[in-house]
Design brief:
- This is Mitochondrial glycoprotein family protein.
- The chain has 252 residues and is α+β, with helices and mostly antiparallel strands.
- It contains 6 helices and 8 strands, in the order αααββββαββββαα.
- The strands form 2 sheets. It has a 6-stranded antiparallel beta sheet with strand order 1-2-3-6-7-8.
Length: 252
């Protein structure tokens, strides 16, 4: 008898006994005895230790999980095999050093620009395909309805530790600044510190000047396609390793 059946029968008894107790005072005693008996039966059922049958079920479930993981690993290797030659496709003039640490979901781009240190943080697990399909364009090819978008955090710092931090969306045809703030060395920030206005509220000429500021430091839309390929490649590698780590744990 399954636990579900026991619970259903116990619940049915409780409802029946409650109804009978309203109809007849004589039923209270017998109902209580039955309720106690039902509780004892339920407690016994709940206290039944897992048998060897349960252990076999666990083993079977684990073996099934490992089998599915192996299948998924095979698919990941065949369909999403990392491009080992991707670094050979770095676009001409790309000024950043790529720091790609296995096991971390972010890719760091770093460079020195005169007296400044520039760091770009790209999250490989963040969605970078922004589906924006205009109304009335249902007949267009799906490829044209998907627009690559890479969210990044660009930090420009100098020797004193103070930096400008830009929240940026990189498209193949444009760099969009989503936010801008000034960051002080760790420990000196205040939650009440003024962070500046929304970037869109700035004067148009000031917005253009900030875009030019980033452009001459290497933040250009011409690098977006390469970065999109790179972070997709990293995400595939990290996913494949994650599958292997999970399989290794379950398979112990």
């Amino acid at each position: 008898m399954s636990l579900t059946t026991v619970f259903r029968r116990a619940s049915s008894r409780v409802v029946t006994l409650a109804f009978r107790s309203v109809r007849s005072p004589l039923a209270v005693r017998s109902g209580s005895e039955r309720l106690i008996l039902g509780s004892q039966q339920l407690s016994r059922a709940s206290a039944i230790p897992f048998s060897t049958e349960s252990a076999v079920t666990k083993t079977t479930a684990d073996e099934n999980l490992v089998s599915v993981l192996e299948s998924e690993i095979d698919c990941a290797v065949k369909e999403e095999a990392p491009d080992q030659n991707l670094m050979e496709d770095v676009p001409q003039g790309f000024p950043f050093k790529i720091i790609d640490t296995p096991g971390e979901r972010t890719v760091l781009l770093q460079r020195n620009f005169e007296d400044e240190t520039i760091q770009v943080e790209v999250d490989s697990s963040a969605p970078y395909d922004d589906e924006e399909q205009a109304e009335g364009n249902d007949d267009e090819d799906e490829e044209h309805s998907v627009k690559i978008r890479i969210p990044m955090v660009v930090s420009v710092s100098k020797g004193d530790g103070v930096c400008l931090e830009f929240g940026v969306s990189a498209y193949p045809d444009a760099i969009v600044i989503d936010s801008l703030s000034i960051k002080h060395p760790q420990g000196s920030d205040s939650e009440l510190a003024y962070q500046g206005p929304d970037f869109d509220d700035l004067d148009e000429n000031l917005q253009k000047a900030f875009h030019r500021f980033l452009e001459i430091r290497g933040i250009k839309p011409s690098f977006t396609d390469f970065l999109a390929d790179y972070v997709a490649n990293k995400d595939s590698r990290e996913y494949l390793q994650w599958l292997k780590d999970v399989k290794s744990f379950v398979d112990k």
